[in-house]
Every structure is written in structure tokens, then in C-alpha cells.
Amino acid sequence: MKNYFDFFNLPKCFNIDMDLLDKIYYNFQKKIHPDNFIQKSKIDQDASVKLSTYLNKAYSILKDPFLRSIYLCKLNGIDLNTKLNLNFSHDFLEQQMKWRETLSIIKNKKDKGKLEILSKKIRKISKKEMRIIENFINKNQYNSAILNIHKLMFLKKFNIEINNAFMLMNITQ
């Protein structure tokens, strides 16, 4: 199969026309949806399911900026799982420890206000990281982009921990 950008006849770049992506997706989906192939042969039905699955996966990856950035790196030879020398700065590693310590203290005190402040801070930093990733990809600097993708992955996981803390606070109060 073609890569996802070619499949949708879109340029291989970070900034894509989302309205066009949606339009192509919905038009394509109408044509190849498995329900349209109920009266067809088993081969045609299977092909429809396969193509529909591929379409949905391609769409979900291109629609999400984070997943799209990972996919663009992969297309350019830098896979997320490739063993890279991820030299996170000492400051970033230290910051991770501080955030975890802060979250632990907040959870122990059940302080929703401070948890909200931490959550907003992490979301703000995540948006900034996404812009940095976008800039690296636009400059074809995929090794740098993948390093920041790993940073953003940490931030996303940490945000899940924050959301879990919110849920626990709501359950226990």
C-alpha cells in the first residue's frame, strides 16, 4: 500500500489541509465501506474490510499532529523505536523528577487547586513541545524531532497520571 500521505493524495509535510483530509476521507469511506459490499463476493468483501481498516488508520494518524509527526519521522528513516542516543538535557531530567515529586505531594494533600495548576502547566509545555517538533519536521531535522517527540511522550504520560489523580480525588471526596 501507499504511504498515508500518498493514499490521501496529500503532500508529505507536517501542515496539511485538514478540511481536505476530512473531505477525502468521508468520500472514500462512502465508497469502500464494508456495508456496500454485502452482496459482493467474499474476495470483494475482504478487500473492502482491509481497505477500510487502512483508510481509518491512515486518517487517524494524519488527523493527529503528534501521530503525524511520528509518521513523518518514520517515513524519513527515523523510527520511534530505533535505538537513539536520547540525550535529554540534565535540566529536563531534573524537571521530570520535580514534577513527579510535586504530583506526589499534591496527591497526598488532595489539593485539587494545585493539581489544576500543574495540569495547565504540563498542557502549556506540551503545546510548546508540539510547536518545536513541527519546526524540526518543517526543517527536515528528524533526529531532533524524534528527541522532542520522546519528551512529549513523557509529558502525555505524565498528564495521564495527573488526570488519574483528579479521578482519585473525586472518588475519595
TrEMBL record:
J domain mapped to chain residues: 3-75
Pfam families: HSCB_C
GO molecular function: ATPase activator activity; protein-folding chaperone binding
GO biological process, one term: protein complex oligomerization
Keywords, alphabetical: Chaperone
Organism domain of life: Bacteria
Self-association state and partner proteins as the record states: Interacts with HscA and stimulates its ATPase activity.
Function comment: Co-chaperone involved in the maturation of iron-sulfur cluster-containing proteins. Seems to help targeting proteins to be folded toward HscA.
Family that this chain belongs to: Belongs to the HscB family.
Record-linked PANTHER family: IRON-SULFUR CLUSTER CO-CHAPERONE PROTEIN HSCB
Protein name: Co-chaperone protein HscB homolog
Organism: Candidatus Profftella armatura
